[in-house]
Amino acid sequence: MIFNTWVYALFLIVAFCTYWLAPARWRPVVLTGFGFYFYWYYYPIHVLLITATTLLVFGLSFLVPPSAGRRRRFAFIVGVGGCIGLLGYYKYQGFFFESLALVFPGAQPIQAASAQLRAPLAISFFIFEYVHYLIEVYRGTFPPAGLRDFTLFIMFFPTLICGPIKRFQQFNPQEYAQRALDPANVSAGLERILFGLAKKTLIADTVAPLCAPVFAHPEAYTWVQLWLAVYGYALQIYFDFSGYSDIAIGSAKLFGYTVQENFNYPYLQPNIARFWRCWHISLTSWITDYLYIPLGGSRHGELRSYLNRFVAMTLCGLWHGAAFHFMVWGMYHGIALNLYRVYGRVRERLLGPKQGEGPVALRVAAGVFTFHFVCIGWVLFVCDLDKASLIIARLLGVR
Asked: Model pTM greater than 0.85?
């Protein structure tokens, strides 16, 4: 069920009315039921898979708390490993056999068969929330939740399709915090939904058909047209994704829930580190907390931190899609973040600690450079590597 459709508008109205007319104690169940219907509408068979996985993670969560005894580590590994294995099977099986076929051509028939496998809708978001939940219960951040609370957390329909990725300890208390309909929440929610729809339909959907032919046949377009397409795609992906996030945040607000903001003017940031603190914030924070820091973060020396950052961003690229160009896009940003870190260290040694934000002209120049660096990266994101290399070479005037 796509957000920018009349079907979703009708669904949202029915869900809103049913939720607020239901007795307070039944509202979480009502909202969960609408979440299952929302998911069933897209691809019914995968509801069974998501339901089974949710029940499995729920059951395992009672075996992993600090009080669970000696076998909790085994249960934790089974739970997290099973979730990652499920993601790998559905999303990365084709990529694995594609990679294998490059070395062993005999694997091509298996690659073709695996390409027909359809991944469950939003499985990447589901898996990240499952893993977050198991990790935090294992750490003792909060005790295992009841089935009603956990299922609502997973099946909360405003964030099912494309996030923001939720944290249980932030989401769950809101289930009990508000018992009455708040007109201010309704007003804010509707305003945010309309704002998101405008970004998605008036800007992203208008720009998309103008950019697509250029990326499909870059050899047929001039240098100026290529740059215009790159700028256009930068606008398209931002307004498309942030528009969806706005609709999700606004929809959640109608039911009295506040979910994390996902964007904070990323294209106006003066460096690549600030860009990533403002782009897809819920994903960036998840990768930091559950990948970069567990790998060692910056606790084991500077060289190790560079490796950890590079690995984290490479996996971030693969999270977006099972293809080499997504992986290279992640590596591109991993290298950039490391180079910016090196620059900061060298600058601090030569000039001392940074004082303030610096001159306005310098901040503007840094922002322009960062924006163009990100724009070139989007070419790796949207095109396969052959076309991306051609486009980037022409953009930089080397071909």
From this structure: yes
In the block, which residue shows the tokens 């690229």? 317
What is the Cα 376 distance to its own chain's centre? 20
The three state secondary structure string of 301-343 is: CHHHHHHHHHHHHHHHHHHHCCCHHHHHHHHHHHHHHHHHHHH
Domain ranges of the chain: 6-187, 196-395
Side chain identity, residue 202: L
Token pair for residue 21?
């007319």
Q: How far apart are CA 22 and CA 352, in angstroms?
A: 61
Residue from 149, 109, 115, 118 nearest 133 by CA: 149
CA dist 123 and 120 (Å) reads 6
Q: Which two tokens stand for residue 378?
A: 């989007």
Catalytic-role residue among 46, 132, 217, 320: 320
Q: Scanning the structure block, which residue is given the tokens 């660096």? A: 373
Q: What is the DSSP letter of 118?
A: P
Exposure of 337 in the CB half-sphere (CA atoms within 13 A)? 23
Whether 320 is catalytic: yes
pLDDT at 43: 77
Q: Cβ neighbours of residue 165 under 8 Å, at least 6 residues apart?
A: 125, 128, 129, 132, 159, 260, 282, 283, 286
Which pLDDT band, with edges at 50, 70 and 90, does 399 fall under?
confident
CB atoms within 10 A of CB 39: 23
What is the per-residue pLDDT for 388? Answer: 97
Q: Per residue in 215-229, pLDDT tens?
A: 999 999 999 999 999
